[in-house]
Amino acid sequence: MTTPPRVAAVVLAAGASSRMGSHKLLLPLAGESLVRRAVRRVLAVPFAHTLIVLGRESPRVAAELADLAVTLVENRRYAEGLAGSFRAGAAAVPGDVEAAVFTFADRPFVTTGLYRRVVAAYAPRRPLIVAGRYGEVLAPPHLIRRELFARVADEGVGIRPLLDSHAAQSIVLDFPPEALFDVDDPADYERALVLGAGEARA
Length: 202
Fold this sequence. Notes:
It is a single chain. The chain is α/β, with parallel strands linked by helices. It has one domain: Alpha-Beta Complex (Spore Coat Polysaccharide Biosynthesis Protein SpsA, Chain A), CATH 3.90.550. It has 7 helices and 10 strands. It has helices at 34-43, 58-64, 82-92, 112-125, 149-155, 159-165, 186-201; strands spanning 7-13, 28-29, 32-33, 49-54, 71-74, 99-104, 129-134, 137-138, 142-145, 170-174. Helix 3 (82-92) packs antiparallel against helix 5.
């Protein structure tokens, strides 16, 4: 009998929100903050561990998640961008897991179902990578095995070079293009409010 894989989730929530003006992850959408919405959808999947990488206004973001079963990881160098957040999250992944699913907290329409698909695709073959694709765009959630963490952290490579290097040991899943929507500026947030209201009615 095959042993179920132990997979962690790493939610990158350390962005500076420079284009929003205020901290976007604390903005409300459908009755809860963006960060809480994202994390709850991750927690609906039985990951071995769920880590949240914090940066700007970390105490306020942490307060939003205080009652949830997560591990908080502070990235004090969040202004350096996603690479630093990835490094902080990857370094904190406990040693008892073999791979981690990396995702962003500012993508409010990535569903629990997408995370379940990533884990389900990984379980039978244990590939090095399970990548998400939205039309022609590669974007998280991506699953990466532990042996590739150091390469990404040291070289700052994106998912495309990893896929090119490990094509035979990778799986690419096609996700709905609308799930790619992220919140970066006030116009995005206004659009998210409309989409969120439609999602709630559906």
